[in-house]
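Trying the structure run again after the queue cleared.
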Amino acid sequence: MVICAKALIDENPDPTREEAAFAVRGNICRCTGYKKIIDAILLAARLFREDVRDLKAPEVTSVGQRAHRLDVPEKVLGYGEYADDMEVEGLIYGSAVRSKYPRARILSIDDSKAKALPGVRAVLTAKDVPGKNKVGHLKKDWDTMIPVGEITRYVGDAVCLVAADTPEILEEAKKLIEIEYQELEGVFSPREALQPDAPLVHDTGNILAHEHLIRGDAKKAIENSAYSVTMHYETPFTEHAFLEPECAIAIVDREKKKL
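Done. Tokens:
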């Protein structure tokens, strides 16, 4: 969207709201309804036209007053640090070995070669992590790591974690871990998952939740409308364009023995 907005303003320094909306039409955003995005394009165009260079965030003096995000300057100007930019003395690196198959049973994990590699600090599987293995937002149904004997649910499920002194040793260690799989039939669409004979993605079934909502009389509203239009709409799969993968840095307080 930023690139489209820049191209628009370069060609037309004083765009209308309709022209700004048309310029970003090919970008899919589920979060805002585009209002703030279009507002930002028109504001940027005005600031370029007026050659404004000393922008300052308004001082917040009351509850309910709109305020700028604290990290706006570093994000906009590009000097903000991401996890990969940060350096900590004695830092070690960790990463997950992930499933090769969308749906497969883990028969065994042999990490002996990886553990023997100089510079490897640890190789952890589900049995090494105390507490509950399940996490999730709406439903606790996602395994943090797939234990031996259990079934993966997508390419990318974590099977084990590796920690090493350098990124290069880390990647080499991950290649040395031998995982035996029993590949199983997968489910690749909601339509497939709803079939009576579909493999179960979870033991509880393939439906997260079922809700039946009624609000108003839709049939009556359509019958009484001056016009009614029937169309068939389809949308493509959409994924976020992350600036970096999910990652974090943890520092141990060795005196308190806490992270």
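The first helix runs from residue 2 to 11. Worth checking whether this holds up in the mutant runs.
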